[in-house]
């Protein structure tokens, strides 16, 4: 089913007067009220704001996706608003929010909500789409623009619906220090290792870095009185600009594709007790699925 088929022109505002995201949410919720639909709007608004406090839903590229899973909503509502001037709220990528997409859904249709959110995010990532949206002066033209992109909503939850599209990575020629810096900046414990063509070669994690300092760790565990001639971490610091990823990375990693069902990957993650699965297309790295993202997106919402 095409994403555009879920949209209704009466639930689109292409000329928001709001100056902040919260004001835009209120303005868009008013579209439902104008239809005479009876909802507990205080509960709906409270749930949206609570979700915003947990994590800012400004997606980037000029788009924001405030959303709520609450039984105060009796069906899936998709509300689209366009601010020509842009909102004042800070964004992670420095691009002002111009498009606000509010999604409301009861918990009983969580799958459709996640797929719709994924479809809207796919639309937002398309090159030049924000410029096209801002040039539109008719609600039906916005629906047509989305229809022309052929973004679809699948029948089942797929890896592409939840995976992270931006993947922190290093190359075999990067140093141990560079690996540590990338891990720190991105708050990650493991990184993909790719070649210059973005082809996935392997993985390096924080355990690999520590093992570089303690190559004889098994002897240390079996004999806690094991004597060392030098302080291992001090020696590692001396070598951090010389040790290469090629000396440490591993090739034992799990991969999947964007079109694989989430249930299949989730089952594999549980069975093998792994926290991440890299997503590839024709051998090239296109995303990563983290176990915590399955929890955050599906269970937390």
Major β-sheet profile: 6 strands, mixed
CATH topology label of the largest domain: Mannitol-specific EII, Chain A
CATH architecture designation of the largest domain: 3-Layer(aba) Sandwich
Residue ranges: pLDDT <50 for 5 or more in a row? 216-221
CATH class call of the largest domain: Alpha Beta
Describe the overall structure.
With 301 residues, the chain is α/β, with parallel strands linked by helices. It has two domains: 3-153, 3-Layer(aba) Sandwich (Mannitol-specific EII, Chain A); 169-300, CBS-domain, CATH 3.10.580.10. It contains twelve helices and twelve strands. It has helices at residues 21-34, 41-54, 110-125, 129-134, 139-148, 159-162, 176-186, 206-213, 217-222, 232-239, 262-272, 291-300, and strands spanning 12-13, 58-60, 63-64, 67-69, 77-82, 99-105, 169-170, 190-194, 200-205, 255-256, 276-281, 284-290. The strands form three sheets. Strands 1, 2, 3, 4, 5 and 6 form a six-stranded mixed β-sheet that branches. Strands 7-8-9 form a three-stranded mixed β-sheet. Strands 10-11-12 form a three-stranded mixed β-sheet. α7 (176-186) links the parallel β7 and β8. It is elongated, with a radius of gyration of 23 Å. It starts with 11 loop residues before the first strand and ends with a helix. The model is unreliable at 216-221 (pLDDT under 50).
């Amino acid at each position: 089913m095409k994403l555009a088929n879920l949209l209704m022109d009466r639930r689109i505002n292409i000329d928001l007067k709001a100056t902040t995201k919260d004001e835009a949410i209120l303005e868009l919720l008013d579209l439902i009220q104008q239809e005479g639909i009876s909802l507990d709007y205080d509960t709906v608004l409270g749930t949206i704001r609570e979700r915003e406090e947990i994590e800012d839903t400004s997606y980037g590229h000029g788009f924001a996706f405030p959303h709520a899973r609450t039984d105060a909503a009796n069906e899936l509502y998709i509300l689209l608003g366009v601010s020509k001037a842009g909102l004042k709220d800070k964004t992670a990528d420095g691009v002002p929010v111009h498009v606000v997409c509010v999604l409301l859904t009861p918990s009983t249709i969580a799958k459709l909500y996640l797929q719709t959110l994924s479809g809207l995010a796919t639309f937002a990532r398309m090159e030049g789409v924000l410029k096209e949206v801002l040039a539109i002066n008719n609600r039906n033209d916005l629906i047509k623009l989305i229809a022309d992109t052929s973004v679809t909503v699948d029948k089942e939850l797929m890896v592409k619906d939840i995976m992270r599209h931006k993947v922190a990575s290093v190359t075999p020629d990067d140093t141990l220090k560079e690996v540590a810096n990338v891990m720190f900046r991105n708050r990650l414990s493991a990184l993909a290792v790719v070649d210059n063509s973005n082809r996935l070669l392997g993985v390096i994690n924080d355990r690999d870095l520590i093992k570089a300092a303690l190559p004889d760790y098994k002897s240390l565990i079996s004999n806690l009185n094991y004597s060392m001639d030098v302080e291992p971490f001090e020696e590692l610091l001396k070598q951090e600009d010389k040790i290469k990823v090629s000396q440490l990375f591993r090739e034992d990693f799990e991969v999947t594709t964007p079109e694989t069902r989430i249930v299949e990957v989730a089952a594999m993650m549980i069975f093998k007790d792994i926290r991440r699965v890299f997503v590839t297309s024709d051998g090239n790295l296109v995303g990563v699925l983290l176990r915590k993202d399955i929890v955050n997106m599906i269970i937390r919402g």
